[in-house]
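Appendix B: a complete holo record

For completeness, this appendix reproduces one full record from the ligand-bound portion of the collection. The bound molecule is adenosine-5'-triphosphate. The inputs are the chain sequence and the ligand SMILES; the output is the full three-dimensional arrangement of the complex, encoded as structure tokens. No fields have been trimmed.
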Amino acid sequence: MKTPVLTFFNNKGGVGKTSLIYHLAWMYASLRKRVVVFDLDPQANLTAAFLDEDEIEVIWGQPGKGSTIFQCVKPLTSVADVVQPILQNIATDLYLLPGDVSLSGYEDLLSTEWPNSMGDNNLYRPMRILSSFWQVMQMAAQKIQADIILVDIGPTLGAINRSVLVATDYVIIPLGADLFSLQGLKNLGPTLRSWKKLWQKRLDNWNENHEKEDYPQFKLPQGKMKPIGYVCQQHGVRLDRPVIAYDKWVKQIPNVYREFVLEETPAEHIRQSEDPYCLATIKHYRSLISMAQEHRKAVFNLTSADGAIGSHSLAVQDAKKDFKFLAEKIAKNIGVEL
Ligand SMILES: Nc1ncnc2c1ncn2[C@@H]1O[C@H](COP(=O)(O)OP(=O)(O)OP(=O)(O)O)[C@@H](O)[C@H]1O
Ligand SMILES: [Mg+2]
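The structure of the chain with adenosine-5'-triphosphate bound, as generated:
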């Protein structure tokens, strides 16, 4: 069985995608699920959260090795094939395939091969390139017997993210309670449906083509892209704005999600606190976030030795409960037993 791929995505940037994945990765590892995290955002913020600059410098300085996602797929830009990923073992049951600023250079090839993959012949190479992220993800998962693949991407609707979504089984949408996040949500729903449909066309085209018989071992992702819910982030709230403005946007989220992401009829009087699609509301961790970044830890793993004393230590315990609850809820949605 293939390892489920879970991608966190919103067309609005800065909504806390990277921080959320970082914390969930630590939480799953502590629950003894083996996680492999893929940093597919060319900004590589998630990589910087896990590794220090010296470590990243060494990794980026070894092109051709398979130590970053770009190094793994780069051979496809010439005549060779993807290479086996070299994963960073961050902790017990926690692995990372680092991101790479150079990954943006792959966007053009993914754009060019998208129409080529709908032709009548020479389909293998375009299909290999378009599914290359998934090929590397599954190689990595097999190598370490991973239970879950968590994927971070940037907030764009470009060819890199389209290929990541093609590789994705489940999508979680982090958002803030503001106009921009809701607009991002409105753009995201139709985009996901369109990518799913267009990938299905490519799969059908490949399956009907005689070329398929020449590559019996070649497996392709199904492009499921199933949205399983949203996570509302409170840290984006501007402290100078009245609570009433926050409430106004919070009230709209359940129905915008239903209408634009699920194409469902809006529900009447549904509050976010009762909305089954609201997976969690993440609190504003204030100074604990920078404390956690400084110690390269999840907020909920901070100790008094790190400076989490007094009210901080209560907030740390709350964060642990909240993230455990969220990790369990997601696992249930994607069929992973804890
Ligand atoms: N729960 C939180 N409490 C306080 N600050 C937070 C919280 N979550 C994230 N932040 C901060 O908010 C900023 C944006 O978060 P993050 O980088 O995770 O967002 P992102 O959606 O991944 O952004 P991008 O779209 O640029 O990739 C960061 O400075 C991060 O430290
Ligand atoms: Mg990010």
